[in-house]
Amino acid sequence: MDAWRTLSFTRPPDPEPGMWLFEEPLFSNCFLSARTGFSSATLRGRFVEACVVKLGHLMTASVERLAEISGIRSTRVLQNLVEEVLQSLSAPLRAHTQSRSLADQWTEGHNYVFPSLSVSPTVEGWSERSGLLLSMKTPALGTFGSCGGKQLYSSCVKVLNHRSLAGVRELRWTEVFGSDVSPKVADGSCISLLLRRGWLTSSGGLYMED
Question: Is the omega angle on the peptide bond into residue 121 within 30 degrees of 0, that is, cis?
Answer without folding.
Answer: no
